[in-house]
Amino acid sequence: MEEKAKILEYKCPNCDAPMVFGSENQKMTCEYCGSSFDVADVQAYNDSILEGSEDAFVWEDGTVAEWDSEEKNAVQVFVCPACSGELLTDAQTTATFCPFCENPAVLPQRLSGGLRPDGLIPFKKSKKEAQEAFLKLCGTKKLLPKFFTQEQRIERITGIYAPFWLYDCTGKENARYTGTRVMTWSDSRYHYTKTDQYLLVRNGEADFEGIPMDGSSKLDNAIMESIEPFDASQIIPFDTAYLSGYFADKYDVEAEIGRERIRQRVEETMDAHLRNSCMGYGAVARTSVKTGVTHGRARYVLFPVWLLTTRYEGKLYTFAMNGQTGKMTGSFPVSRQRCAAWFWGVCGAVTAAVTLLQLLF
User: Is the pTM of this model over 0.85?
Assistant: First the structure.
């Protein structure tokens, strides 16, 4: 690497310690002196102290091997302004922590040019709330191993601004359905069944705004969709100050990649509405569909997500919580003993019921 890039940090106007964005009071908060300031005030203060000379260092011996072009794109070095430690990050990291002094750091170079987000939703839920939500969710799982929450250790709770694409478009759909009506009756000799089938043609057009798709290949699409929806009306203009104290990734999935996924979501939504218009039939089956998406555009935004990882019996489990609404999802282990006990309990109850009926009748 030819040069080390700068890291942007936000200093407390009172004690000069690093500040983070607090989800509780929606202000920049100093964890050392407890002071809180509006984002704009801290931004103005830090802008006033950014000017100054930098130390120069010249390496005169060229015997050390240089990074090749592939490594330069994959890994970059940043210098922590608090302790001068060097951070190695991948090409997508835009906010992180110094591994030596745990100083929150924002990497503004990663957010420049075309990579700058259009906006973000600030964290509304705190780290403590994420942990409480996880334990509450565990309490609803009856077949969870007995010692999962007692002995497990949450290896990491990470607040991350996840990159999302929001798609605006117009959807048109032409669909054909088969509607079925069945009538039955009987007389003294026979039972009759009459089945009528109808061709149902439905056409529809709708405008869609803000269809989300996560823009990171490192985040599981199913998990990200399961913690939706995010309230896009709370998107605010992007400011790097909101990233302080959290991790953040830039997108590595281009907007064009999501077109087919968005077309599928448009088709699913319109099919549900068109199908609901087919009233008065016992069964409705779609036989053909043609979907068109036009007037599409994508916006790049950052959404708050808490990621929790825990290990149980050597296996890693990942949970995600919507940092705006608190909705949590994840997969749990199942206790074989509790599952077997439940199964035999049900069997025992059924056997007892049958025995009772036999005694009565």
Answer: no
